[in-house]
Amino acid sequence: MNLIELKAPYLLFVGDAEDLLMAKTAKGVAHWRPERCLGQLRFPEAKADLGIADLDVEEAARQGAKTLIIGLAPIGNSLPASWIDTCIRALEAGMDVASGLHLRLTDVPDIVATAARTGQKVHDVRTPPANLPCGTGLPRQGKRLLTVGTDCCVGKMFTALAIHRAMEQQGVEASFRPTGQTGILIEGYGISVDAVVADFISGSVEVLAPAADNAGHWDIIEGQGSLLHPAYAGVSLGLLHGAQADVLVVCHEAGREQMDLMEGYAVPSLEETIDINLRMARRTNPNARLGGIALNTSRYDQQQALALIAEVQQRFSVPVVDPVRTGVASIVAEVLKDA
User: Fold this and answer.
1) pLDDT tens, residue by residue, 91-125
2) Are 292 and 249 in contact (CB under 8 A)?
3) Whole-angstrom distance between the N-terminal and C-terminal Cα of the chain?
4) How are the residues of the chain apportioned to helix, strand and coil, as percentages rounded to the nearest 5?
5) How many CB atoms lie within 10 A of CB 117?
6) Is residue 162 a contact partner of residue 287, using CB atoms and an 8 Å limit?
7) What is the pLDDT confidence band of residue 338, given thresholds at 50, 70 and 90?
8) β-strand 189-190 against 2-3: which pairing, if any?
């Protein structure tokens, strides 16, 4: 298990992000751990704004920042020179640096040398544990819920965190199981399944969400990608099989027509998404069921969103929510009623 100890408060690096989707890691940490966030560092050309104080490295250090978190999630495996310079300045100012990028900061010689010279730590949270096993597919004690989606970036992590929080508020024994860099930075542990060699993805999820001591314990597992995404379906399938989920919650951004960064590929329907996820989930848990649908209705006003939620709920006869607008209480009630 990747256990990390991030010193707070944090300076969230937004850099030159054009929107909050590119800065989704920073956005997630700021939303779920606001008490740990001192401010954001944005370049002049940045369009994304977390709504917290703008600070440069030196001012953040004077105010007591302890960790610079790289809050962007770009595609690919490159690190701009301006980002490297920012990391070096943070280390020299007395901060640790944490990153969930595919490119490990510990592979950048200048960053490594600066960390060694200053005595500060560099955390690459996307590095998976060594010696992960293959999946076994064997049943294990405890209950598990997995969020799945019609596409990438539709709210799977947010929904899982909201369900976990709601369960805890009801006194249910539950754990959030992060499978991506943002979730790991929020929770302080986890396995970034998209960095795991394919043969070991399902096994890594069995390690992340092991047999529970209490049969009534719930693991709320963060989903990744989509089974119908041409680029990322392999990660989604390994995660689905390893989770052996009792309950699936399907996440969807209402109004999105094209799959994320996949020109020419339409977003699949909820019907197709539900069907394929349940069929694949039942390979390792024959009793897997649909617990609800979480809609991201940010493209709509309140009246339109509530009308859409009601329409989808009537179509599928399961609780339908927008975790931001309505909360997730109805899904939690549905999940727990037969547990």
Assistant:
1) 999 999 999 888 899 999 999 999 999 999 999 99
2) yes
3) 28
4) 35, 20, 45
5) 10
6) no
7) confident
8) antiparallel
CB-count exposure of residue 278 (10 Å: 0-12, 13-18, 19+) = middle
Query: Tokens at residue 262, please?
Result: 């996949």
Backbone dihedral angles phi then psi of residue 293, each to the nearest 5 degrees: -125, 130
CA angle, residues 98, 99, 102, in degrees to nearest 5:
155
Q: In degrees rounded to 5, what are phi and psi of residue 187?
A: -90, -25
pTM: 0.91
Domains of the chain are: 2-124 (3.40.50.720), 143-337 (3.40.50.300)
Q: Is the peptide bond before 9 cis (omega within 30 degrees of 0)?
A: yes
- With CA atoms as reference, report the closest residue to 273 among 323, 225, 218: 225
**Tokens 């070991």 found at:** 200
The 8-class DSSP code of residue 59 comes to H
Q: How far apart are CA 221 and CA 243, in angstroms?
A: 7
By CB atoms closer than 10 A (0-12, 13-18, 19+), residue 313 is middle
CA 157 to chain centroid = 4
Closest of 147, 160, 157 to residue 73, by C-alpha: 157
Q: How buried is residue 264: exposed, middle or buried, by Cβ count under 10 Å (0-12/13-18/19+)?
A: exposed
Task: Please count the helices (runs of H) and the strands (runs of E) in the chain.
Answer: 11, 13
Q: How many CB atoms lie within 10 A of CB 84?
A: 16
pLDDT digits (tens, 9 = 90+) for 188-237: 899 999 999 999 999 999 999 999 999 999 999 999 999 999 999 999 99
Whole-number Å distance between alpha carbons of 198 and 95: 34
